[in-house]
Amino acid sequence: MRGHSIIELLLVLTLLGATTASLAPIALEYRDRNSAVAAREAMVGLLAEARLAAMERGLAWVRIDMPAASARVLAPDSTLRTVHFRGDFGTELELTSGADVELRFNALGLGVMAAQTVRFRRGESVAELVVSGYGRVRRR
Q: Which residues, 6+ apart, have CB-to-CB distance to 90 below 8 Å?
């Protein structure tokens, strides 16, 4: 007769369970960090889209709605794109101003706004985006 005894199978299952339990927190931390970074990069994309739309249409802006954890690219005649950070990435938003904000771009693609730091938080992980008054971005 060939095969494995029940004790050998239980030992393998125990080792597999212990390994999985020790890796689970690392996997969750990795997921949280990647979600925060993905949300930050989505905001960078919104700002780039608003800058291009402003050069095409003369004016565009990004409206950040903190309670809804969302941002929209708006032009004088339409909404170009919306991102829901809580629903799409599972992240929360924090702004230095503490309130909803509009990041405006003029026909030259330059920002006409006060500098803002936008924090994307999921769990213990945070990704930051600093937007200058001229609309340049710096990732942290």
A: 35, 122
* Residues 85-109 pLDDT 10s: 999 999 999 998 878 899 999 999 9
Whole-number percent of the chain with pLDDT over 70: 99
Number of H helices, E strands in the chain: 2, 8
Q: Does residue 1 sit within a domain?
A: no
Where in the sequence is the domain holding 24, given as residue range(s)? 6-139
Provide the number of structural domains found in the chain. 1
The CATH code of the domain that includes 84 is: 3.55.40.10
Q: Which residues pair with 105 in a beta bridge?
A: 60, 111
How far is CA 126 from its chain centroid?
9
